[in-house]
Amino acid sequence: MEKALKAVKNPDNKLKFIRPLFERLNELLVEYYNQSRLIPDLALPSASKEISLTPLIYHAAQTAYSGNNRQYLPAAEIPIFRGGTNSGRLDLALFSDKNIVMIECKSRRPKLYGNKTKETLIENALQQAASQLNSAEVETLKFDENDLRRVVKVACVALNFVVPYSKYKKKGGASLEVDFNHMVSTIRASSLHKCITSAVFYGPHSVNQPKGYISVGQLFVVKQVE
Questions:
Q1: pLDDT tens profile 35-80
Q2: Can you tell me the distance from the alpha carbon of 220 to that of 86, in angstroms, rounded to the nearest whole number?
Q3: Category of 148 on φ-ψ map: left (φ > 0), alpha (ψ -120 to 50) or beta
Q4: Which of 124, 167, 180, 196 is the most exposed place for a label (fewest CB within 10 A)?
């Protein structure tokens, strides 16, 4: 069974401060897959994919910035007000001396060769995350009115691309990797103001093979919400 996996770095852009988190997240996905053939955001049903990613994002945030001068302390599933008496939970927040980064993440599991436009799927998911961020009362995350830290809102969509097992057997992992990376390049070219990172893993594993599909790779698209 093929096993070689790698994480692909994105080019510099205005979201470079958040890039270490998602690059580390991809590295962790690769490590999990190499050790267990499990992919964390496939370990729960569709409605729970984002919940199953949260612990991994938290772990990535704890380690991604450990070698840098700027330290971000992560907190996950934070109770937060969303206008009036409504409340909800923020997926993740990163706290530093100067910034508070609010992150909402949406998870999708599209087919690599599906007919749906990938860019449209990504934009719709980012808009959902942005809407949740804009409804959140940022004061919830601050000590008091004297807390002058800048609040940065970041929307994220995590996409785990799958293909039918029959196509994997026919094309082979190397060919699927080429197609996946080509798709990532196309998305990156049309997303100049987004941070994009990806990881490749191919081959049958114990989570979604019974459904007739295997994973090809993971893609994170991140956008700052103004």
A1: 777 666 555 555 566 677 777 887 888 888 766 656 778 888 888 8
A2: 29
A3: alpha
A4: 124
